[in-house]
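### Sample
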Amino acid sequence: SRGTSYLLKDSIPIIEFSASGPFEGHDLLRRGFTSVKNELLPSHPLELSEKNFQLNQDKTNFDTLRNIQGLHAPLKLQMEFRAVKQVQRLPFLHSSNVALDTLRGNDECISFEDILNDPSQSEVMGEPHMMVEHKLGFL
């Protein structure tokens, strides 16, 4: 017992060395890569509104549906949205989400993504085994 207390008494405490203040370095191993895009403010006042357009439209539709048909209708529709969002293709294949578009009523609309979103030029393409293992958390 003397040996353990003797070692603890004479040991030097180790302080975590970290720079602080305006000249603090970014610890890449602990915090990952920094993204300038996340630190930028919106460049136009309508940018935030456009990013949340679908969410705001869904909320308005659910409120209207609740007022017209009662509480069961938006709950049923939200349950269907969640079920449809869970069904996807493998990570290395492009998923069109046709069922979600049909539920939202966007299946007959032509949008920006329909014309300029070519799956053959997608950055998602890669080695299938590595992408599936990454999605499942094995890597």
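The radius of gyration is 26 Å. This sample (POMP protein) is used throughout the tutorial notebook.
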